[in-house]
Design brief:
By secondary structure, this protein is an alpha+beta fold. Helix content is about 55%, strand content about 25%. The radius of gyration is 37 Å and the shape is rod-shaped.
Length: about 150
């Protein structure tokens, strides 16, 4: 009888130790799942931030290209107006980079008080230049040159 009780006590101790081991393994598994989930959230956050920063850099590059093209058209149109103050504008030009720009019909007439608007759109980024000219000749006088935000 004593031997049977001792054997049963050993079995209970063994079962209790197995339960603790199983519980310990379960806790370790849950802990690893939580740590993995947190690491995944951090990684996804960093990835989304990098994608956003890349998109901003691309948009900035497109805006600069559009501004350069619109400015090139404005310079060209000013030269044409100085040579011939009857220059009609309404032209699309291709600049060195392969980008295009549009020269609107110049406002006003004659040698004084003229306006000029040029626009360039690259993908979905548009840049417009608006120029007010006080005098074309003998010396070009520009009263304002504005980048118009679109």
């Amino acid at each position: 009888m004593r031997l049977a009780k001792a054997f049963m006590a050993v079995l209970r101790f063994d079962e209790s130790r197995n339960m603790m081991m199983k519980r310990s393994g379960f806790i370790a598994l849950i802990s690893m799942m939580i740590i993995s989930a947190v690491a995944t959230v951090i990684a996804v956050g960093l990835l989304l931030r990098a994608i956003g920063e890349n998109q901003m850099a691309v948009n900035n590059d497109l805006a600069q290209r559009a501004q350069l093209a619109a400015t090139s058209c404005a310079e060209y149109a000013l030269g044409q107006l100085r040579q011939n103050n009857a220059y009609a504008g309404n032209a699309t030009l291709t600049v060195d980079s392969g980008d295009t720009c549009y020269i609107g019909v110049p406002g006003g007439s004659g040698n004084t008080n003229r306006t000029l608007v040029t626009t360039s759109t690259i993908l979905d980024v548009t840049q417009t230049e608006s120029i007010s000219i006080t005098q074309l000749r003998p010396q070009l006088q520009i009263s304002s040159w504005q980048d118009v935000i679109n």
